[in-house]
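call fold(seq) -> tokens
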Amino acid sequence: MRAREASGQTGLEQLRGQVENWRHSPSKSKAMPRELWDAVVTAATQHGPHQVAKALGVNSQRLRQQMVARQARQNSAAMVPAMPAPAVQFIDMGTVAQIGPIAAAEPMVVELVAADGARLTIRTRDASASVLAMINAFRGRS
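ret:
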């Protein structure tokens, strides 16, 4: 057990050296780099946030915030599906005449997103051929 404690103390001493090097560097005015925070958070999960904050001279509240942020990143990464759903290539909106009667009562919003990310939003009360022409022009752009 003492070997493990000694190994942990050596790791904290090395990490303290890295924190001290950052503190004395010209970039000290900037936030501590994420890689360094990640190492500090890893140590805190092994040895406890209070002990690590005290050993490294970092703010314990800030360390706890970093631990929560890392957990949130890990949780959100775990929620990403392995295979994304296929992108919709085409949606048949029918003819403009079919849209017309609905559009007369309320404003109509047509939103298109191209595969390259370009967007077109049309807000109108008039479902005339000009809307269809705008859609066709958007789809045929180069």
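The helical segments are 2-23, 34-47, 49-56, 60-79, 96-105, 129-139.
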